[in-house]
Amino acid sequence: MAVGIFDSGLGGLTVWQAVRAQMPDLAIHYLADSAHAPYGVRDAEDIHRLTKAAVERLWASGCDLVVLACNTASAAALRRLQEAGVPEGKRVLGVFVPLIEALTERDWGDNSPPREVQVKNVALFATPATVSSRAFQRELAFRAIGVDVEAQACGGVVDAIEDGDMILAEALVRSHVDALKRKMPAPQAAILGCTHYPLVEDVFQKALGADVKVFSQPKLVAASLADYLERRPEMLGAGETNMFLTTGDPKRVSDRATQFLRRQITFEAA
């Protein structure tokens, strides 16, 4: 029984790794749209078109449930995909909900009015497309009031990580944190709104300071998915084997993924 995990590139492998740790017997079909990465600099229409094609590819591979392990896709395409309707027995989930549940300390099924929460000043680090969508702020407003969110578009970080240039990625992170602090000098919490960013989470934490609580998505998404599948076991698709698919060059993507996770990962053409 399999579920699908989709990302524009390799960042979603951080979610794959966390899901694998949480549910070691679950078959996962991972799809990286490497030919069109990164999504963070694309417009909403383009992101929707590419995300829709990727989700349909994973449905075809035997996954009834697909997780968009890409904040940009979740921000720019998820709502439109859901509103357009999905085939019977299929589902698409994003990565914002587990993060907001953790930040607000309330379950998504809690439909009581928005209320004040402990955290008042939140820094959001994300791709330019995610920041411009204001999707995180919109979803947070359904659950909490009185939270000041200062967003910082982290241009170049995803590209550097995808290229394996961690020295550049770390330098860019420090630069973006400095820029954020000029706008919000004392954030209480920070959201890493891109699944690539956990790979440099320690750099974010050090630049922000030990007193800032950093919320990173992989473990939160994995725990949420495990809970969802326990409640909805019928959403396990017919796929039985693990697979890694890419729209890019399989050898190049495999090499990058192996470097990324420090374990052998072999992609095949989507």
Walk me through what this model shows.
The chain is of the alpha/beta class and 270 residues long. The protein folds into two domains: 2-94 and 218-269, Rossmann fold (3-Layer(aba) Sandwich), CATH 3.40.50; 97-216, Rossmann fold (3-Layer(aba) Sandwich), CATH 3.40.50.1860. The chain has eleven helices and twelve strands. The chain has helices spanning 13-22, 44-60, 71-84, 96-104, 128-133, 135-141, 157-162, 166-183, 201-208, 217-231, 250-261, and strands at residues 2-7, 27-32, 65-68, 91-93, 115-116, 121-126, 144-145, 148-153, 189-193, 213-215, 243-246, 268-269. A six-stranded parallel beta sheet has the order 4-3-1-2-11-12, sandwiched between helices. Strands 8-6-9-10 form a four-stranded parallel beta sheet, sandwiched between helices. A two-stranded parallel sheet has the order 5-7. Helix 4 (96-104) crosses helix 10 (217-231). The relative contact order is 0.20. The model has no long low-confidence stretch (mean pLDDT 93).
